[in-house]
Amino acid sequence: MTGGWTRLGATVLGLAAMAAVPASAKVEGDTVYLGAALSLTGKYSIDGEHTRKGYDLAVQTINDAGGVAVGGRRYKLDIIYYDDESTPARGARLAERLIDRDGVEFMLGPYSSGLTEAVASVTERRGVPMVEANGASRSLFAKGYRYLFAVLSTGEQYLASAVALAAEIAEREGRDPSTLTLAGAFEDDPFSQDVRAGVLADAEALGIRVAIDDRLPPEMDDMAATLARVKALGPDILVVSGHARGAALVIRQMEEMRVEAPMLAITHCDSADIVGAFGAAAEYTLCASQWAPTLTYEDDVFGSAADFAATFEQTYGYAPPYQAAESAAAVLVFADAFERAGAFDRDAVRDALAATDMQTFYGDILFDETGRNIAKPMVLYQVQDGAYVVVAPTARAAAGVRWPTPPWSERE
To answer: Residue 17: which pLDDT band, with cuts at 50, 70 and 90?
Structure first.
């Protein structure tokens, strides 16, 4: 990890007691500082830690290669961190601190759509460019923001390929997709509600009947009521979105309650480590992903997607979830924009970001006028023999989908 001005937040130091930093922290000597308020504690702490590791690995790798060339000089990157404790109001306050007290003029995004929206409201007012990698809500890109740029695909796309895959399988077996039924359970937060909107729109377009459409509380500590209905109604497809906690919860409770569904598709499989945590119970699960190490993207910093995965695993001791990959890509986008802008002027960097057209190990990055990345598709993993294997879209598949999921009695 990088050193520099790391801060952990009020639970460790207290806001009032935090040590002061130089007034010109944005560029000090040969170092340019980025700022980030991240969920290092609280409900998003798992994904927040993946995000931080992606940021840190990109900074370290860029610096080891000589840094960024700006205005005839080379500069190192570093990041000032604070812990937002998974709370939007605190994230907004920390963004103000980073800009007003620490002098940061370039921001990396937090984890989750709700926190990204809170921070973006601050960065936009201050005219501070932010590149974010973990806020996928469509609403972020409907506010006319000029300083917000996102490397990831938006939420409504996450499980679209799962619904399409179910229809494709049905047609292949001579069954009309309109005879399929779907059950959905979605956390009551901006990201998961966007996932819901995409799933319902795709189901409607294909004529698939929605038998269950449940909204889950943010605590995500019990899905028994929803799963009891799934057990009773027997839908063909079950889709669930609830970040890492929701992913772990649905696998655990489906096994405990012996709930069966021919197709289970969820978000955040890898960040929840459903394979490591649940073993055989995770088999056959379909997992929405922003990225996979088997994809054929590459860049001059990390090399290929597989190279990034190997570097990450060597550094941190586990395979990178997509949250880490997209976070590293956000740093690459800033580095590229700094070099093309030729200066650390906020507006020049903002304009360079808007003109981004590049390929990274994570995928192609091209921003539309709202700041969304319109060049990179989602992929769909399936857990097969304890590994995540890309099965959709078909053009990028590494293996065929295994379907239907057999009954529990045949899986033991």
So the answer is: very low
